[in-house]
Amino acid sequence: MAYAEDAELEELHEPHSFWTKYIWSQDHKVIAIQYSLTAIFVGLIALVLSGLMRMQIGFPGSLETVDPTAYYQYMTMHGMIMVIYLLTALFLGGFGNYLIPLMVGARDMVFPFVNMLSYWAYLLSVIILLASFFVPGGATGAGWTLYPPQAITPGTPGTDWGIVLMLVSLAVFIVAATMGGLNYVTTVLQARTHGMTLFRMPLSVWGIFVATILALLAFPALFVSAVMMLFDKLLGTSFFMPEMMSLGQQLDHKGGSPILFQHLFWFFGHPEVYIVALPAFGLVSDLISTHSRKNIFGYRMMVWAIVAIGGLSFIVWAHHMYVSGMNPYFGFFFATTTLIIAVPTALKVYNWLLTLWRGDIHMTVPMLFSLAFIMTFLVGGLTGLFLGNVIVDIPLSDTYFVVAHFHMVMGVAPILVVFGAIYHWYPKITGRMMNDTIGKWHFWITFIGTYLIYFPMHYLGIQGMPRRYFSYEEIEFIPQSAHDLNTFITVTAIFVGVAQLLFVFNMFHSLFYGREAGPNPWRATSLEWQTPQTPPVHGNWPQKLPVVYRWAYDYSVPGMEEDYTPQTVPDDPAHESIQHDEAGNPDGAPA
Amino acid sequence: MAFAVILIILTIASVLFHYLNPWQATELASNWGTIDVTLLITFAVCGLFFVVICGFMAYVLIRYRHREGNKAHYEPENKKLEWWLIVVTSIGICAMLAPGLVVYGDFVRVPKDAAILEAVGEQWRWTFRMPGKDNKLGTSDVKHISSSNPFGINPDDPSGQDDLLVLSNEVHLPINKPVKVLLRSKDVLHNFYVPQFRAKMDLVPGSVSYFWFTPTRTGAFEVLCAEHCGVGHFNMRGKVFVDEPDVYESWLESLPTYAESLVRDVSLGLEEQGKQLSESRGCLACHSVDGSQSLGPGWLNLYGATETLVDGTTVTVDDDYLKESITDPGAKVVKGYPNVMVAYDFSPEQLDATVAYIRSLAASAEENEVEREEESAPPEAGNTADPVSRGRQLVQGYPRIMQPYPSNDSDTHALVEFTQSIHNDKQGD
CA-CA to A350 of 20 to 30 Å: which in A411, A431, B157, B363? Predict the structure, then answer.
């Protein structure tokens, strides 16, 4: 805890001009908001792209601009933006930045300047990415997985400039994520306040912390594959390019392996799923606990489950490659590891339900989103067992079953957590509550709408409908009813997409007209709700750093007046000295 | 409360939907019924967990909803309960994984008596090769690929001489005989996918991948590409016919061997050279020659036609236009088609041959007009252009006001016949 003591001696240099306070800010809270708003902005672009794609699938030929070239470009950009530039950036850069220092009781990230650079590098990567729409040949249409050789050979949209900008943008993003990630990990390890042991941290911090470690270990694999593919494209090397033809012409490449890229990509790509999922697990745990007024069930198991999932996520990657033409005997190993990872994941679901069990459940908007998350994640998780079990994957691979599965599990489920978390922490960030009525409308449309979109979609895949098709005309085994279902999905998707404007409106409207929130509107225990000012000022705790006496889940403790006991409340009111309990004991709670 | 009710409704609706929806797996046509069984087991186990978990959640939400004076219980953990849940989950996982791995064991072990079929993919079409009498495929290499050797068979390898070549996207297989499909790509990743066979596998340039199955039902089955392979991915189709043995044998006899294909090459006319060139260089992947819808303008009756370009001007398709479009495809793009073709650096002889072939497709069409009208499926390019291009191939001078009419095949066909009859009446006058 040396850092905490040092930090209290340091003088705070609060910025005063508009520029240093809001633009070139080194305050983790401002950087978090910058990250979040940028991510939500690109997310809205990706949402529009998905609408355009769905128009072609639901109403073929209805939009003249959506030709095969444009379709594949929209598809690629939609996927990449949603996975990397929205979800990863929002969970780590947004929530990670805002919550880590506040929840562990630090004044700021340990490297504020690097933290600022992280955001500006992220913004640069977004600008490079979006610029690819406007270069000759347009954005790349290689699919978000960017598989070579197709990603860099003619015959795919955007192989002149689009793919180069995409790879450069990814490389810049990884630089940004690394600068941010080093900050989050160091802050969690070094800057916790007095008494904040690792096992007293809220699960939000645990989820983001482990996800950040995964990011630091996984992103380099993507970085090198981006650089190697750039070399193949620009310098004529052959990392991923075998001796091959392209549209009738012999290419100069020789000896490279397209499957090598897939291994590198998924060595990053599978942990990436958990880079998005683990923060969502953490945040939703805190939401469920707070709004059911009950301690999280099995905290220690929850932490170990996060760590186990994080570790296992590095040895399951080739389940994305069962039909890739790799050595088929790998299938036995990866099917087994993949199904093992289901055990700690299932345990998390059980413990969320057992947290609700015998609780005092308040149906607030954040709680509604959390419950919807459990249901959506359950479906997405169970369908993952289909795809993880190698032989069941073989007929379903590359069909709409996969599309439905990953949208449920890492599209809709984390986004529901994002919404719930924003409704939950908005009062701390702005000092005002978001509008409850609009929030509930937004919730019901989003939850039921996405379920209606993605649940039936699985069955298109079971029937065999292949994904990444511009048109399904004249495929004999696809009946008219499947086209009708696609039309239904498109109509629903566009309705749900437009309904997201409710959220955007609520976010900006409540900034000015929302009800005053007070410091702790949800009566929560964790440190961020105990700041002297709301919103917290620069430095979070301008005078003394808080002292932590208990874990973050003391809700409805027997014998206590209130149904929550903040972490800063001493066990024995007379007992004022600092606890140096490093043993990692969650039983900071009364026995 | 509302959420619990919706949760119960969604759960029941999901289960009913599973049993009642019309989108079930296609009728099986291979030995991989065992894959369907593993799918069924997975559905059973996952369905059970789904219903139990959702049911418990609904119960909890109703039973423990906030009411005045309620207080939550305080119970940080219950190790015993957690371990029980882990054990139950693990049993469920094993129930799915164990049979899955057993069936996968069959999938990776190819029977010794399996026949060999090589499927060769390229953007965006299929060709096929089978071993001849020696039951052994000749070695192949990208560097051998040429217009006279589209498969890239090693000319010095004796075992390749009797290989049987299928230079179209339609291939036949005998029923009830295991077949090992060897997969080879000339350019990018593809995936050989026939939904009714259940099995599928990627084609990877630079290596040969494989899978096996036994066809168990006669009929025609569509081959789709299931790995994104560029802008024509959705259009990369083929067909597998599963035949009774005698039908299969007679088809097999009609195939040229590699050695024969080389001999034939010597005495080719210009048109025939063009035909071979457009097959081997992949032109036909995007340009149909039978009037069907394709990624690029179809070649049937193209020569001499007047086409509207993207900039609104028109052009008459003649030798010069065709040659320019081969060597500089982006210069004059026909309206309604994406500008995706790459430039081909054909020699003047190759250009002449290709143009001669395209010209022949127009000439022969006129000559055979009467004959073709009697056929069951007349070429009807413009009329049945699928909704992909609906509203795009608009006749100049008319406004874009007609809405797309969804219709089934027989309706469309009847309309086309009617239109043709009017045309014939006029000619009769």
Answer: A411
**Residue numbers in B near A150 (CB within 8 A):** 188-189, 228-230
User: Of A339, A356, A455, which is closest to B14 when you measure between CB atoms?
Assistant: A455
Which tens digit of pLDDT belongs to each residue from A281-309? 999 999 999 999 999 999 999 999 999 99
In this prediction the ipTM stands at 0.91
Q: Which one is predicted more confidently, B393 or A112? A: A112
Q: Give the model's pLDDT for residue A287.
A: 97
Q: With beta carbons under 8 A apart, name residues in chain A contacting B39.
A: 386, 392, 395, 462
Nearest to A442 by CA among A355, A532, A543, A365: A365
CA distance A144 to A402: 14
Residue that the structure tokens 């057992």 belong to: A354
CA-nearest of A98, A112, A105 to A201 is A105
Long-range contacts of B422-426 (CB under 8 A, 24+ apart): B424/B373
Beta strands in B41-109 (DSSP E): none
Instruction: Give the max Cα distance, chain A.
Output: 84
- In angstroms and rounded to an integer, the radius of gyration of the C-alpha atoms of chain B is 29
Chain centroid to Cα A58, Å, comes to 28
| pTM for the whole structure | 0.87
Q: How far is A372 from chain B (nearest CA, A)?
A: 9
Task: State the best of A392, A399, A409, A483 to mutate against chain B, taking most chain B CBs within 10 Å.
Answer: A392
Q: Which of B24, B45, B103 sits opposite A462 (nearest CB)?
A: B24
> CA Rg, chain A, in Å?
24
Neighbouring C-beta atoms of residue A572, cutoff 10 Å = 7
Please state, as a whole number, how many other Cβ atoms lie within 10 Å of the Cβ of residue A46. 19
Rounded alpha-carbon distances, angstroms, from residue A529 to A27, A188, A567, B363: 18, 18, 10, 83
Contact A382 B196 (CB under 8 A): no
Measured between alpha carbons, how far is B369 from B204 in angstroms, rounded to an integer? 43
User: If you measure CA to CA, which chain B residue comes closest to A344?
Assistant: B86
Using a 10 angstrom Cβ sphere, with 0-12 exposed, 13-18 middle and 19 or more buried, the burial of residue B257 is: middle
Beta bridge partners of B185: B121
The pLDDT assigned to A480 comes to 94
Chain B residues within 8 A of A146 when measuring between CB atoms: none
Structure tokens at B151: 């498969």
The residue length of chain B stands at 429
**Residue B406 pLDDT more than 80?**
no
Neighbours of A473 (CB within 10 A): 18
E strand or H helix at B183, and its extent?
strand B179-185
Q: How confident is the model at residue A1 (pLDDT cuts 50, 70, 90)?
A: very low
CA distance B421 to B412: 14
Categorize the per-residue pLDDT at B384 as very low, low, confident or very high, splitting at 50, 70 and 90.
very low
B87-138 confidence digits (pLDDT tens): 999 999 999 999 999 999 999 999 999 999 999 999 888 999 999 989 999 9
DSSP state of A200: G
Q: What is the dihedral of CA A520, A523, A525, A527, to 10 degrees?
A: 0
- Across A160-165, average pLDDT: 94
Return the C-alpha torsion angle A334, A339, A345, A349, nearest 10: 160
- Whether B191 and A398 lie within 8 Å, measured CB to CB: yes
Residue type, A443: F
DSSP designation for A535: S
Residues of A in contact with B22 (CB under 8 A): 479, 481
Burial-class residue A526 by CB neighbours within 10 Å (0-12, 13-18, 19+).
buried
Cβ of A1: how many Cβ atoms within 10 Å?
17
Q: Helix, strand, or coil here: A494?
A: helix
Tokens of A462: 């079971």
**Could you tell me which of A481, A486, A404 has the C-alpha nearest to residue B23?**
A481
Q: Are A381 and A274 in contact (CB under 8 A)?
A: no
